[in-house]
Amino acid sequence: MKDLTIRPERCLGCRSCEIACAVAHSESKNLFSAIGEKPAPRKRICLEYIPDLVVSLPITCRHCKDAPCVSVCPTKALFQDETTSMVSHNPERCVDCWNCSTVCSRFVSLYNMILVMGCWTSSMNCNHKVINRQAEAGIRCNLCEGRDLPACVEACPTHALIFSEVNEI
Amino acid sequence: MDSSRNINKIVVDEMKQEIDEKSIDPATQSMLQKAEEAGIETAWDRYEKQLPQCSFGQLGICCRNCNMGPCRIDPFGEGADKGICGATADIIVARNLLRTIAAGAAAHSDHARDAVLTFKKMSEGEAGSYRIRDKEKLLSLASEYGISSEGRSLEEIASVLADTLLKEFGKQDGHLLCTRRAPESRFKLWAELGIEPRGIDREIVECMHRTHMGVDNNAVHILLQGLRTGLSDGWGGSMIATDIQDILFGTPQPRKSTVNLGVLSKDKVNVIVHGHEPILSEMIVEAAEDSELLKLAQEKGAAGINVAGICCTGNETLMRHGTPIAGTFLQQELAVITGAVEAMVVDVQCVMPSLGELTGCYHTKFISTSPKADFPNTIRMEFHEDRAYETAKEIVKTAVENFPNRIQEKVTIPEEKQECMVGFSAEAILNALGGSPDPLIEAIKSGAVRGIGAVVGCNNVKITHNYGHVNLVKELIKNNVLVVTTGCNAIACAEAGLLLPEASELAGDGLKAVCKALGIPPVLHMGSCVDISRILVLSSALAKRLGVDISDLPAAGAAPEWMSEKAVSIGAYVVSSGVFTVLGTVPAVLGSQAVTSLLTGGLNSVVGASFAVEPDPFKAADLMLEHIDGKRKALGLN
């Protein structure tokens, strides 16, 4: 299946993905009109700064059905609502084991980066509650259904976001 | 075999369709096709590589004014609603807009300064290549500014006038002299609002001060300074530039010429003058007629020397000498792509740095002349007034000597060239009307002329080249609106054949009859972008004659394809002068609701005019017509 891959080493922190995402999920699909819409359109991708890595990176979650990150989490820090399939993360239960990062195609590149940089922070601990906020709001990345390319990928000036075939991990 | 041919055909068709979307002008389309086939990059290709453009930039909500930043505001309200210093979207947008206006005003006014300095040197006998061409205008300006001409030679008068005008730039008290050309109600309003411009340079400097970290942080207060700075351009720098250039090179009078890439010659040496100032191009035009150089051209196998303009340098020589124009702003690269240009000679403003790499693909010499402006891969031939003609001769000689290097296989000159009638200075329009604005006023009163549309401005890759310009103007004249034009709009209209008396066939019956009676086109070319000051003078004359303010006139402005910072300064002074203005591309202000609503509505109750944004030229024309009709009604006209 095709999914978003995040290449954190390319991210300049410009937030273009965030705005493109919000516009893609607006009524008008047009930047100049979308900024006046009520309620304001909500982005599904959030740029977060990771101090331990000194990088910014976009975080987004599909809250996939039968989420692999949930099934591999040994401490149940990650859990999934059975009816809505929204995934939440409880940092208090998280033990920085990285298991979740190794099974999520969106987080695996961050995991690799963590390995390279020798930083002992779990990727899920780096999500800055983005996933929980989405779960609360009931919004998830739907890969911009109906578009050839997700808006965030199209908007990224450095190709830090790519949309391609990913192998089931 | 067949199927591959079909595929190729489809590819070619697709390419054609894309090119149709880039420009409505056939000459431009054919050169774009050539560029594409040769793998040569143009502004349109670079635009595609920039897409999608940064949303923060488009909304004006990014601030780089201090090094705590850069800061950005989240336009959807989830993230930061203030910069680190606490500046809101309103403050950031207003500050950015003010800096843009300052840059635009600086460009026009610094151009004016150089014109006055040349004029001064001429008056002192230190710029032998220049002389007084319009004595009447010199004397009339001297009398306007209270300079006695009694017992003084023309040069002495010129010298005092130059000193008087130079003082306008560094003025510390009082008002700018040209502002008194506005109707009294208008300049009094400026004084009441505290936006009467003081010194020309002062307003620009103050913009930079106010937008420094921690100075002016009230959006309305900031924008009022924007209006004042705009006024210092329109009724200051630009107006001075027009006046002095008229004295030095002659006030334009109606004449015929030709435009578009087809003006480039197959067998003559082609010299393009591109940029904005006539100080150099006037000399180039003269040098191209130098017998010594013509002889050299013959020796090199050329049939002569052909000077053609691009942008406003082109408009300046077009207006005064009928020198042909090769194209608008977006045609500068295409002129080189014809392969027939021996020298691309540039001064300042709107010159793409891409020309450096591009001229390297051809034999074209890229010659930069301004002490202020250099570009990649140029030959520097810096231009100074004391040896102006000599430098111009050297430049033309370089072009002539380059003629044998023309690579014939690379030469394709589009056939399209269009005749046009130009040279409508305010003075020339009054002459055409028989010496008084009354016939025009009568035509407006009777409804034969519904109103006046001032359509100006650049090209912008965001709008199909010339589509906005030509369609808006056609729509206006069809509805009996007499159009006055400058800058790249004027060139676009010329390319579309709208600057001919015969174009009155496209006008409504009322306007058609007026044009036929006077022998004028329905679209009057008033000059370069600094010559928008001529439009101000003309509208002021009409308002005064009617005993009303400019904001009461059935008139509206538009910049359908604007892109430059100068256009923003122009917008600021045109609206502050009382003229409703429609912009065809969206300015970077929509990130602030307060600023947007002030510009598009609130300003009405302040200066009696505001902006609208409408990329569709047909809808833009409707907005202008609606405004004109409203003003007619208020004046009691049907």
Q: Your description of this structure?
A:
The complex is a heterodimer of chains A (169) and B (638). Chain A has 169 residues and is of the alpha+beta class. Chain A contains seven helices and six strands. Chain A is 27% helix and 15% strand. The radius of gyration of chain A is 16 Å and the shape is globular. In chain A, 40% of the residues are buried. The model of chain A has no long low-confidence stretch (mean pLDDT 84). Chain B is an alpha/beta fold. Chain B folds into four domains: 2-56, no CATH class; 89-249, Substrate Binding Domain Of Dnak, Chain:A, Domain 2; 261-410, Rossmann fold (3-Layer(aba) Sandwich); 421-634, Rossmann fold (3-Layer(aba) Sandwich). In chain B, strands 6-5-4-7-8-9 form a six-stranded parallel beta sheet. A six-stranded parallel beta sheet of chain B has the order 13-12-11-14-15-16, sandwiched between helices. Chain B is globular. In chain B, 56% of the residues are buried. Chain A binds chain B through residues 14-16, 18-20, 22-23, 31-32, 34-36, 40-43, 154-155, 157, and chain B through 52, 54-56, 58-59, 72, 74-79, 586, 590-591, 593.
Helix content of chain A: 25-40%
Number of helices of chain B: 26
Q: Which structural class fits the helix and strand makeup of chain A?
A: alpha+beta
Largest sheet of chain B: 6 strands, parallel
Summary keywords:
heterodimer; A: 169 residues; alpha+beta; two-stranded antiparallel ribbon; two-stranded antiparallel sheet; globular; B: 638 residues; alpha/beta; Substrate Binding Domain Of Dnak, Chain:A, Domain 2; Rossmann fold; six-stranded parallel sheet; 26 helices
Summary, kept brief:
Chain A is α+β, with helices and mostly antiparallel strands and 169 residues long.
